[in-house]
Design a protein that fits this description.
The protein has helices at about 5-10, 15-30, 40-55, 60-65, 70-100, 115-140, 145-155, 165-180, 185-204. It is built from nine helices and no strands. It is mainly alpha-helical and about 200 residues long. Helix content is about 75%, strand content about 0%. The radius of gyration is 17 Å and the shape is globular. The longest helix is centred in the middle third of the chain and has 29 residues, at about 70-100.
Length: about 200
């Protein structure tokens, strides 16, 4: 395992949680007082900058990147992504029909350039660093690995909307297993990137 992945394991959970809470509070107050309208894109961006700062002496090595594209690992990534996208759209299809019986509250999905950037690039990087890189590794120190996988995947799924929570949980479990098997967070980031890219292409 590279120094990058080893150092990622040592980032403290309470430090990351404190930063996330602080950033959400800033977002809440800025939005509540109409100072500036911020969305989660900026929180994810700040979190990525935080990880760059924390890992600045041990950035990913060439072996971290080549490990993503090994035949066996790449095949597993493609299989997980394809299955997850079909599962995601299956659950969205079911929830969409279920919502026909529930009154609408004017919610809609709009695709913007910044939204695409956040979904395809920013979210996979920040979410994998947080949920697999920090949460999973820290939870493994206090609970058995199976529970660490389930808890980190539940937390990951909780960020997602109704209709995609179940598939997000399953995807989180798959990402955790992929990360544990390879010991390389870049594998999980790349799989997450491909998953979100394919999902957005289908939406477009």
């Amino acid at each position: 395992m590279s120094l990058f992945n080893e150092k990622l394991k040592n980032i403290l959970l309470k430090e990351v949680l404190s930063l996330i809470i602080f950033l959400f509070l800033i977002q809440y107050f800025l939005n509540a007082f109409n100072i500036i309208n911020l969305d989660s894109f900026w929180i994810y961006l700040v979190l990525i900058l935080y990880f760059i700062y924390k890992l600045r002496d041990n950035l990913p090595e060439k072996s971290d990147f080549t490990g993503v594209f090994g035949a066996r690992v790449f095949g597993q990534i493609i299989m997980i992504v394809v299955l997850n996208v079909f599962l995601l759209y299956g659950f969205l299809y079911l929830s969409d029909h279920a919502l026909n019986f529930i009154p609408s509250f004017g919610l809609s999905h709009s695709i913007t350039g910044i939204g695409l950037l956040a979904t395809i690039l920013i979210s996979p990087i920040s979410e994998e660093l947080i949920f697999r890189g920090v949460f999973l590794n820290r939870l493994k120190l206090v609970v058995p690995t199976v529970f660490a996988v389930l808890i980190s995947s539940l937390l990951f799924a909780s960020l997602h909307t109704y209709g995609s929570i179940t598939s997000a949980f399953i995807f989180g479990v798959c990402m955790a297993i992929l990360y544990l098997k390879t010991g390389n967070v870049l594998v999980a980031i790349f799989a997450h990137f491909l998953n979100n890219l394919l999902a957005e292409l289908i939406v477009i």
